[in-house]
Amino acid sequence: MSEQAARAGFNGSPVIVGVIPDQDPTVCARALELAHSQSAPLIAAFVDPASYLIEWTPGNRVLPISLDPILEPEDETSIAAAQIKESLTTAAAGHDVDWSLRIIGGDPALALGRMAAAVGASTIIIGARRPGFMAKVDELVSGSLIHRLLTTQAIPVLGIPSPEVQRHFHSHG
Hints:
Elements lengths: L2 H6 L6 E4 L6 H13 L4 E6 L8 E2 L3 E2 L1 H4 L8 H17 L6 E6 L3 H12 L3 E5 L5 H10 L2 H8 L4 E4 L13
């Protein structure tokens, strides 16, 4: 664990939740509960799927546009962000948590990690991958997001399972 991550602790340090359109509401509900229990702000991070990485410059500096891209109002990402913001507003109504929505660019694991480092986050929360064939293909091509986060981040990563997960209990005997 990096020295900065170790110093951040949990209480008061922002909680980051990766969000996508039409996401299972349990993910945001659990993120809001965790942020509330830690008296921390919640940052909902939507990684623009149409973005590409433009962040690294000579000297390994991160360009601001990677963490704060400029979007056109009719852009698909702006429309998706508006839908996510509406869902978050509804979900946050019952919680006493300061929250914000950030749109970030690049590879999801790297983008969430950059955001966590930039704000001194205590935790990154993501939901289970979407069901379906295309989600499986995407995972085969780019790898499991939670696995990539667990192997690249110095802060805890929390995965929220889908409520549709089939529970399989094995008996030995």
